[in-house]
Amino acid sequence: MTSSNFQASIDTPVMHELVINGIRQVYHIAGEGPICLVHAGGPGFHWGYMRMPLLEKSMTVIYLEAVGTGNSDNLPDGDYTMPKYAYFAHKVAEHIGAQQPFFLGHSHGGFVGLQYALDFPDELGGLILYSSAPCMNQDLGMEQVQQLENFIQRWADLPEAQDAKQAWMDMITGKAQDREAILKVLGRLMPAFFGNYWKLTEGIDEWQASMDFSVDPNRKPYMWDVRATLETIQTRTLILVGEYDFNCGPRWAKEMDEKIPASQLVMFEQGGHLNHVEMPQEFVKAVIDFVSQASK
User: Fold this and answer.
1) What are the beta bridge partners of residue 35?
2) Is residue 13 packed enough to be buried (19+ CB in 10 Å), middle (13-18) or exposed (0-12)?
3) Residue ranges of the AB hydrolase-1 domain (predicted)?
4) What is residue 5's predicted lDDT score, i.e. its pLDDT?
């Protein structure tokens, strides 16, 4: 991997905003070609870690700053439900006049994408579920712990692997609650997000240092599960997953592929949760191939 995989394109994404029901919604536009809304994960991760200069060469990429994140406003009631995230994304698409846009959601952003396809069934030209899952509940949490154990077994001789598991426990047990503490925990957890963190070379430090996170202390707890309704999604869907993704791994990708009628699954061998960083050429090729097929 070379540093060029992490470098920004010549054109810097241009920031825009609109007000939706009194809430400021910010988004950034870069590239040219078919429109693709990109929703980052978390909830709380800033959009920048999802920057994909290679994709911008073929698509107009709309990087969303989800409500409660970055420059967008917090929701006054702290009620961040998946339908609300989908609604705000849909309003951005409406505002820019996008006809049949694509939606690429990473991790929690994929949850939003599924909800978007359910709530606005005729609006998307294609749905791209990237390292995602059809639920956000105890089932997902139990699978994450199991896959972390597998990660530790693969890298048993590295102390960073053991610390990554402890970092995850610190995260889910609430020991890290403010932005600074969460970013420190994420730094310790970072090896688990990749198929082979220790093979990443030039540019990864800069990329990792740019990662940011927002915390709304008023955010209400929220559980979500759409496994029973996946069969009703008629939108063409691409499911992308890394073989070693501990966070939203192959179990969920295979279930979504089995249940969503017009879906296809691409698994990145030895990939993790962040394949657009770890293997950007292969990642973008999979997206562009899907977009080309869906646009015919």
Assistant:
1) 60
2) buried
3) 34-278
4) 39
Residue 61 and residue 200: Cα distance in Å, rounded? 25
Cα distance between residue 92 and residue 28, in whole Å: 11
The answer for residues whose C-beta is within 8 angstroms of residue 50's C-beta and 6 or more apart is: 38, 40, 63, 106, 109, 276
Q: What pLDDT was estimated at residue 172?
A: 84
For the chain, helix, strand, coil in percent to 5 are: 45, 20, 40
- Residue 254's pLDDT band, with cuts at 50, 70 and 90, is very high
Which amino acid, 247?
A: N
- Pair type for strands 224-225 and 135-136: antiparallel
Show Cβ contacts of residue 137 under 8 Å, excluding neighbours closer than 6 positions: 223, 224, 225
SS3 23: strand
Residues 185-197: b if buried by 16+ CB within 10 A, e if exposed: bbebbbbbbbbeb
Amino acid letter, 251: R
d(CA 185, CA 176): 7
φ, ψ (nearest 5 deg) of residue 136 = -135, 85
Tallying the residues shown for the chain, one arrives at 296
Name the strand (E) or helix (H) holding 224: strand 224-225
pLDDT tens-digit profile of 47-77? 999 999 999 999 999 999 999 999 999 999 9
Exposure class string for 96-127: b at 16+ Cβ within 10 A, else e: bebeebbbbbbbbbbbbbbbbbbebeebbbbb
CA atoms of 199 and 279, how far apart (whole Å):
11
User: Is 212 buried (19+), middle (13-18) or exposed (0-12) by CB count in 10 A?
Assistant: middle
Alpha carbon distance 227, 134 (integer Å): 6
